[in-house]
Queue: 2 jobs
Job 1
Amino acid sequence: MFEIFRTVVMRDLVLALRRRADLMTVLFFFVIVVSLFPLAIGPEMSTLRMIAPGVVWVAALLASMLALERLFAADYADGTLEQMLLTPQPLALLVLGKIAAHWLVTGLPLVLISPLLGLQYGLSGETLLVLLFSLLLGTPALSLIGAIGAALTLGLRGGGVLVSLLVLPLTIPVLIFGSGSVEATASGMGGEGHLYLLGAILVMSLVLAPLAAATALRISNE
Amino acid sequence: MLEVRNLECVRGDRRLFRELNFTLREGELLHLHGHNGSGKTTLLRAVSGLLLPSAGEILWRGKDIRELREEFSAELIFIGHKRAIKDDLSAVENLRVACTLDGVRISEEQAWKALERIGLYGFEDLPSRVLSQGQKRRVGLARLLLNRAPLWVLDEPFNALDKAAVGLLQGVIREHVANAGVVLLTTHQEVSLTQGAVHSLQLGSGELGHV
């Protein structure tokens, strides 16, 4: 069971590394969007500090939407997805493997670079740490929830925009608790409560999203 | 082993076929005939479980394939129009990933041997991107040499293959049928399969051939 999971993750990681340009686009999108705000709003530190959690989180959300389209599209186009549906392995496990690899190459770099971007907004050390931690809990949840939308819109024309329309409303709780945790820490209230809820969302989506995405894949492959 | 009862498939608004019945036993091959758009691929996809037929049932060893699910998948190899190989992986990598997902453990050596037998000697390590259409097709077909699944569903397996490869594949199919395997295939080419029982079924002409 674990070997199958590992095979899928490794396969997708190798594929991603051989197409590095694709990875960079998501990361650069995130970096540029976050960096545009200080340029546009001006160097007023108190304003920047106030908007920082929201800006970083919205940018992370949009960046992960941007990456979603590619989650199943390539495998669908060349027929390997079809073969995955016909393997004797539980499809949800294969889907989970694909999501894990997808998060490792698109979500994790974004999490790791976020403290650096937070510096532009004059966030304190503790706040930066909470920002990093909230993204670490939140971005996998975004990938998991997004996978359902990506699976449902597979093979449709204009699927990219449709995914965003479908998935964005579902990700609102992640956004609220994610940016909420950073805000609460910055204002000295402590963000633990928000982080716990974010963790709960992650666990729930970890259990349910692969099953839902697997069913969606079967439907869109008919 | 494989039994299709009163099968009906509809694509869009068009009914492709209805009340289709046939049974295949061990060591039998069914060659599907029919003009373009007569529903050959649809039938193959339905038999593989990729597509839900609008009526009728498909039984494998007496049980509905929808209930068997993964148990049925373990006994099936489906080779469709899409080549199902990754351009950025080499032939060996493609084959090993496909076999692991099929639940077949193969060593690196077995993968190389299978590729050599299918005529890809010297191309095993190249990214599949640089292979020709026929060579890519061969990478996909190499699975047939390593997987012991009894039911083969092959959609136009001879496409893009050269003469030597066609002969080779015919041999592989013949061997499989002789070993009590079951094969369901479509091809516009004349296939000479001497051993085992060969049935043919004509789709889309209104009259249904019976096996």
Job 2
Amino acid sequence: MNEVAAELAREEAYTGRPLKRVEDAALLTGRGRFIDDLPSSAGTLHAAILRSPHAHAELVSIDAAEALKMAGVAAVITRKDVTALTRPFTVGVRQPMQHWCLAVDRVRYVGEPVAVVLARDRYLAEDALDAISVEYRPLPPVIDPERAARADAPLLHPDVGANVVSDRSFAYGDPEAAFAEAPHVVGTTIRYPRNSVTPIECFGMIADWRPDDGTYEITTHFQGPFALHPVMALALKVPGTKVRIRTPPDSGGSYGVKQGVVPYAVLMAVAARVAGRPVKWIEDRLEHLSAASSATNRVTRIEAAVAEDGRVTALRYDQLEDCGAYLKAPEPATLYRMHGTLTGAYQIPNLTVRNRVVLTNKTPTGLNRGFGGPQVYYALERLMHRIADELGLDRLEVIRRNLVPKEAMPYRAAAGSLYDSGDYAATVDLAIGEGRLVGLLARREKARKEGRLYGIGFAAVVEPSVSNMGYITTVLTAEEREKAGPKDGAVASATVALDPLGGVSVAVASTPQGQGHRTVLSQVVADVFGLRPEDVSVTVELDTARDAWSIAAGNYSSRFAAAVAGTAHLAAMRLRDRLAPIAAQRLNVPAEEIVFSGGKVAARSNPENSLSFHRLAGASHWSPGTLGDGVDPALRETAFWSPPELAAPDRGDVINSSAAYGFIFDMCGVEVDRDTGKVSIDRYVTAHDAGRLLNPALADGQVRGAFANAVGAAFYEEFAYGEDGRCLNGTFADYLVPTACEVPEPEILHMACPSPFTPLGAKGIGEGNCMSTPVCLANAVADALGVSDIDLPLSPAQVMALIEPNEPPPPHAAAVEAREPGRALSGEGTATIAATPDEIWRAILDPASLARLLPGCERLEAIDENTYAADVTVRVGPVTGRYTARVRLSELQPPHSLRLDGDGGGTLGTGSGTAWIVLQPADGSTRIEYRWEAEAGGKVAAVGGRMLESAARLLIRQMLQRLEVGAAPAAKRPWWRKHLPLGKGR
Amino acid sequence: MPRLKAGQRHEVAFTLNGVAVRGEAEPRMLLTDFLRHVIGVTGTHVGCEHGVCGACTIRLDGVATRGCLLFAVQVAGRDVKTVEGLGGSDGRLSPLQEAFRRNHALQCGFCTAGILMSLDDFLEKNPSPTEPEVREVLSGHLCRCTGYTGIVRAALETAKGNADA
């Protein structure tokens, strides 16, 4: 550390300066190289994926014959291809669960891939999706995690035998005694919603198969962790060396999400092999929002044993984690990433935890910025506010009394995290200081005097970075772990090389997604050699066949500054140590005398005695013979580094889940509009201790980005599902992401306690606000409204329900019970038609005329008495799609009443509906009374949800118009009659 | 209006960043796909194809427009400006681009081209905007990386720089 500190304190040090980014010139001029910008070879096929419109159904049959006849279509990939060429993905718990890259026997979420069309271009590929006919046998879905955990719930994986796929309990210290002795027990239950920091660039890849040596080559913006590389190789049934992953130079954001390309990489690799040609796939936004990935939703019951003074002596967690339809590797990592850190920023010696993982018919979950932190801290920091409220203490005082003191660092938290450094109390003081808290209190007092709803929130959060690859194995029992062999560490790698003209280049296994890694690495390495950052070239494209990497490689768990940049520093130092003896020889001084500075290498005592860095650096290329005995050439150094503190979980499940632990204290003031429920952020202060900042401008950029993501999570973002599992937000008009009008500028403060455990003293900073900000804002809203139970997202409707408790939303428990779903759409109406009931009856019962009655009906064929198969084209708003439907007439009371059922599926998804029709004679005409219910799933529900009701009413209107035209004798039909008096829909 | 046939390619001639170009497109081809994959200028990005995220924004006859909501054939005979046309011909960054760089107004850079094109149009028509006006214009764009702070600053700084010059 001392050496590093001295290094960084040098006058010319670039590390620590807010330099402009080397990445920007290309990105600002349209010369970025994102996956869809890369050239692809002639003959490359374009893929389009057919996806399930059902949340849960048996896959009965797939017929692609018609699609294969279409122009430009080269192949259709189905389950028979993937069962022949792949294996199901490895699962992180010991359960017989089969997750293939393409649905095999069942579909388990809306959007699950069912088939892939490969065609000359994407347009033709999408055309052909419509021609694939798939028969599904729908099964009852289960969406709510609490219901899914019950014994009578529909079962997703019959082989597993339960939807709860993991149930582990842990105890640290003596929690039972602490709870028994505590004068107070305070608890709360949290339902944390599903959301995702959706990148603006969707998934994309180009896959190829080299039959000559049996290698799959996949270029994709995979962000790691590269522990998933073996998962891909195992799924593809080839050795790891036969799966070559390359990353493009640029990636349009990830925030963890692009970990989710893995199943698609396997799918497209198989597609390329079957087609014998390269395959390119670019995901679209509907696919991304409905099926790419999501953070977990979680139900948490948390309780604290509390002393009279507000000190917490024990915590009890009961967490129910919803991972969606499959446990996709590395899940259930979201649940265990925070395991060692469950006591947060507090000195709480006793802890008990029950962790259950449940599967539901929703999109499988994966990495997402904050990864487990938002869920844990929402529960813990809501609890800290409630402890103060229930004991009548000051909220900030309760936080302060429990903080881990500076003197205790490095501090071993109850479940095992080793907090490396920090002065939490001083960071709190920094945040509230300079009148910031006093000012907030005054603003609240003034607002309240004026009758406005104003609240203040706090949150104290420990931000873990550089994940221990072993933490996920805490989900296994000690015996299971013993059998599987230990997993631990967080290997980072970096290579620094010198070229013949003395240029310096750096390569790291880090796969950045926009954070500016090239800029920071050039600063760090330039300092080692006494060069300028522009003298150092940095490459961040990774090629698993050529670059140094290990399973922890990648861009996640905020590992760049703490691990990767530090490892690049180590590699550069090693290369410098090799250069020094060569320089010593040439300058005729001892190696210890050599200094690297200002582009020169010189003798410390006589700076005139020097040579240019470039000349020295090229020496090992041009004249290795002159180096002399015992002096090794200096050409290239690769360093691997893993923090020794990261051991595997011990027999008592104690786990140090990360290498470095930053600290954040957030404080905010919000105002709630009592008429609309809209929350405005008045002030937001966020104080960070991320150790040494390598580039403060980029560090602040990370804070602002995470803060904006958190504002979205707090107020707008939720993946909403219908009770039948349909996706309700397939566009950014439905899944709301905050814009420049909704994101205020937070006041960012820094405290620097360097980590003793990382090479440069840096700790992660990129995820913290995703953990601290949602709960800080919720605490402020709870304070403003004087409520104790509050869940996200705090949309105006949700907030209004808290302001107006007389109109509460249906209680959660009732929503869980009411599972026999009322259909989403319904209506009723009347119409008068100039025909007799008998004439109308005949028109409906005659297949030829029934076909004319149904709008968009292209074919109607009797398959049974009063049951028909029909092809129907339906238009909802801007989307048109074909349904293959079954239409059935029943409860026939001629010519008085009947019931009409229809259900079908097609390119737009699924739909079903029932209409009850009563015919009343009325003066030579007929009065028709009707009532209908309908529901829709799949694409139409996700994209056109807002238009469904008007579309349904339009269809009914058309049907009635046709009925009049079809049934009434020509003489009775008023020729001018275009519109019918229709009843109102409900 | 020429009559176009589905399934047939039609020649589309237009001006791109001041230069006459032509290419062939079926009537259903989106302008974004045409620019990126037929003409070969990939600076315009596609983020949603629903007209919401703003990444694909270009200027059509000077007006900031969503490229994903236009068909290629709609730009026949018209003037299209994309991010590639913002800087000087000598490769120098425009004042707005330079301000983006100075203010760290981008991270991954995927949404950036669309934001630059909207601001290019906006600042031309509103040389001295207020911060709320800038935020209002930016509300037509989604950025997940920056929290918008740097973008707002860059726009205001560019306006101020233009006024001072």
